[in-house]
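Please decode residue identities from the backbone states below.
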């Protein structure tokens, strides 16, 4: 049975070859998934899985110990939130790029993961056909967004320069708060308005849309 934590190769003639290989840490809470992913990735002659983690804390520890080129990270892991761990891992090991592997199709999860600092987002159902390419792209600093069931208009945006991943996360949260505040203002009932009237009609009047004709006005015009 392969060790969960592989020991880095020693120095010597193999050291230069080691630098050319793409070293990978796998993080998933299911052993059968970890083993399958290792077999898939190590079919590539230049890929080497150096460690396999079953929770967030061990993933962080293995990344700090091995400094892999790529971390393949399950979105839902024991021991904490993977989304919250992404900026921390990137700060602890800036040279390690992260590819998220998940069953979540919702665009919101992909946006959160990429916004937190991940470079790749791959659905597990497409791992056989997409994960190798996602890892290769991440290893050279390029983004990859799953093609399987890809939501319309969702794409990986380039990372803005000059902002830490934590700062970007706070900025994204602030943007969401402002969006909710704008929605609340649009649907709020004006002071002094008749609260028994439908909110939708009040909202349309306050936004500049013409008011719907009253029933009395309709009867007068018909007469």
């Amino acid at each position: 049975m392969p060790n969960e934590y592989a020991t880095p190769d020693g120095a010597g003639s193999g050291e230069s070859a080691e630098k050319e290989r793409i070293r990978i840490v796998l993080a998933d809470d299911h052993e059968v998934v970890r083993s399958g992913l290792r077999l898939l990735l190590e079919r590539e002659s230049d890929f080497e899985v150096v460690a396999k983690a079953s929770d967030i804390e061990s993933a962080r520890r293995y990344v700090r110990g091995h400094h892999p080129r790529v971390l393949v990270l399950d979105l839902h892991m024991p021991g904490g939130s993977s989304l919250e761990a992404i900026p921390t891992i990137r700060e602890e090991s800036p040279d390690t790029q992260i590819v998220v592997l998940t069953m979540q199709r919702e665009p919101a999860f992909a946006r959160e993961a990429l916004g937190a600092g991940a470079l790749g987002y791959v659905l597990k159902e497409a791992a056989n056909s997409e994960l190798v390419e996602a890892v290769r792209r991440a290893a050279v600093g390029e983004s990859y967004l799953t093609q399987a069931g890809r939501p319309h208009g969702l794409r990986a945006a380039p990372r803005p320069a000059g902002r830490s991943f934590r700062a970007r996360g706070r900025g994204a949260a602030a943007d969401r708060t402002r969006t909710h505040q704008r929605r609340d203002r649009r649907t709020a009932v004006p002071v002094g308005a008749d609260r028994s009237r439908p909110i939708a009609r009040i909202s349309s009047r306050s936004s500049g849309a013409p008011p719907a004709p009253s029933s009395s006005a309709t009867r007068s015009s018909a007469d």
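Observation: The radius of gyration is 25 Å.
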